[in-house]
Amino acid sequence: MKNSLNILRPSDLAEMLNVSRVTIWRMQKRGDLPPRKKISNRCVGWTEKTIENWLESRPFADPNEEEKRQSNLEPA
Q1: What's the CA gap between 34 and 49, in Å, rounded?
Q2: Residue 3, C-beta contacts closer than 8 angstroms, at least 6 positions apart
Q3: Which residue has the higher pLDDT, 64 or 22?
Q4: Does the residue 2 lie in any domain?
Q5: How many domains does the chain have?
Q6: At what angle do helices 21-30 and 10-17 cross, to 10 degrees?
Q7: How many helices (H) and strands (E) does the chain have?
Q8: What does the pLDDT read at residue 3?
Q9: 15-48 tens-digit pLDDT
Q10: Domain with 66 in it: what CATH number?
Q11: 3: left (phi > 0), else alpha (psi -120 to 50), else beta?
């Protein structure tokens, strides 16, 4: 089994979330993102798993969205 650690740089994360790099910076300043990892003196990023877990913990934009999603998963 291959154990690889995928690091997402700020530009990668911006693309993944479909936002600008400036928005990533603002989210960091507000504390809306998980802490970054320092890769080198001038390089930071997040592990892909950290971002996946963070996204899973985020609430749905529409409070009823989770209920709708669950009802779509249940057999009729």
Answers
A1: 11
A2: none
A3: 22
A4: no
A5: 1
A6: 100
A7: 4, 3
A8: 54
A9: 999 999 999 999 999 999 999 999 999 999 999 9
A10: 1.10.10
A11: beta
Determine what percent of the chain is predicted with pLDDT higher than 70.
Answer: 79
Query: In the 3-class helix/strand/coil scheme, how is 22-58 assigned residue by residue?
Result: HHHHHHHHHCCCCCCEEEECCEEEEEHHHHHHHHHHC
Tokens, residue 28: 């960091």
Strand partners, 7: 47
The total number of residues written for the chain in this structure: 76
Expressed as residue numbers, the domain containing 44 is: 7-73
**Tokens 């990023």 belong to residue:** 45
